[in-house]
Specification:
about 30% helix, seven-stranded mixed β-sheet, about 240 residues, alpha+beta
């Protein structure tokens, strides 16, 4: 397997030619057209501050079908109590910056670099990147605090999850469940979780071969993209 050099041309090598680690290419840029092309091929950027842009297409691939969502008993109780208010596309930049700053066990620094924040904020303004926010309203709107969230990219009937954060117990889980339920109601058939984690497995995520993921992605991309901003109400964009 070879690692390809990505040049200025708007193109990618076949994702099936990625290294066993999933690394496919190095270089290129993060302009919206390239990011959208990458996602449509099942490729995503993942690199650290000061590193060149690295492009990945892992095998196997972690996915979640919205209809297969599992919610544990404790979280179901939390959802019934709804101590947190959930919104869509109200604070995208706050969410991605909070994800970048979140401390994660066993991880030094962040892959959500300044350039990545800028790039995904551009995708959000174009209506392709979306966030779900979890708010603790305190005693009133003047005390509203962002305590969790998740963000990702939407193309066709596929949603590509990027990252989430929680500043309060279960806040990101509540936001994630709200997102998955909304996607199921809208007829989405695929959530790309990228890499396997025990956290996502508890929600019903599973690994599939890259070939299966790409075939499912192709079918999802035959459907129209629900461009944002997304509304808090299920039947609307905004």
């Amino acid at each position: 397997m070879a690692v390809y050099r990505i040049g200025p041309e708007l193109e990618f090598p076949p994702p099936e030619e990625a290294e066993p680690s999933g690394l496919l290419g190095v270089g290129g840029d993060l302009r919206p057209e390239r990011l959208l092309l990458a996602y449509s091929f099942g490729i995503f950027p993942w690199f650290g501050e000061g590193e060149p842009i690295l492009w990945f297409s892992p095998h196997p691939r972690a996915i979640l079908e919205p209809s297969a969502l599992r919610v544990g008993r404790t979280l179901r109780k939390e959802l019934r109590r709804m101590p947190i208010r959930v919104t869509f596309d109200r604070a995208f930049e706050q969410v991605i910056r909070a994800c970048a700053e979140a401390e994660r066990p066993g991880q030094y620094g962040t892959w959500i670099t300044t350039d990545m924040v800028d790039a995904y904020c551009r995708l959000h303004r174009l209506g392709f990147a979306h966030s779900v926010e979890a708010w603790d309203d305190g005693d009133g709107d003047e005390n509203t605090e962002l305590v969790g969230g998740v963000y990702g990219v939407s193309l066709g009937s596929a949603f590509f999850g990027e990252s989430m954060f929680a500043a309060r117990a279960n806040a990101s889980k509540i936001a994630f469940v709200a997102l998955v339920r909304r996607l199921e109601a809208w007829g989405f058939d695929l959530i790309d979780c990228q890499m396997r984690t025990e956290h996502l497995e508890r929600f019903g995520a599973r690994e599939v071969p890259r070939r299966e993921f790409l075939a499912r992605l192709d079918r999802s991309l035959e459907n129209p993209t629900r461009r944002g901003p997304w509304s808090d109400r299920c039947g609307e964009s905004r």
